[in-house]
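Lab notes, practical 5.
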Amino acid sequence: MKIHESLRELRLSRNLTQEQVAEKLNVTRQTISSFETGRTRPDIDTLIKYCEIFGIELDSLIYGCDKELKANRRIKIIAVALFALLAALALTASLLFLSAQLFFSLPEGGMPEELMPLWQAHWKLIDIWKVLDSCLNFLSFAGFAALLLLLVSGKGRISLKVKLVYCALLSAVLILIPVICGLIDPRFSAQEYILTEAIVTIRLWAYLGLEEFLLYIKKRRK
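Output from the prediction step:
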């Protein structure tokens, strides 16, 4: 990790604004912004002041080998991978269910023998949709639990703002995909598409609330 990336990540992990860091360093906010974007590099005295503010060693800041920085990177990698995986599962599952209704819809009443391939294709898509729906439910439970343990352990530190943005974006993606498919489906409503995604979204915010509560208790004990 480059120095400007480490500086930005450390500031965000402490939930500080650029103005607050600038005040501690006795520089302007534009200077901090320039440091964090890599347009300019802080001199050695400024880096030492950074280390004093964030309580880390100079080598850790320069080479990005601080334990907290490594933990933050690990958390972010897991969070991004989980986001992509859950979004992909939600999209694929919704499209499969929609395809079963649009292209392989079953006629009402009896099933003529010549339409048996249609019946088989329809239920095969439904079976795959059920498997993906179960995977979405399980992976969200396991993934959110893993992130919770990493954050509560204190090895990494992610600001509340970043966590709120992440949860909001993931919730929007999970809800929007099935809702759109439900609006297109002529037979089933969006409510029937959104059940699992709604559960996952509620679980996401519940885990965030639990994590913030546990961190609050941890701070109070200190």
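Observations recorded by the TA: The mean pLDDT is 85. The two ends are 31 Å apart (CA to CA).
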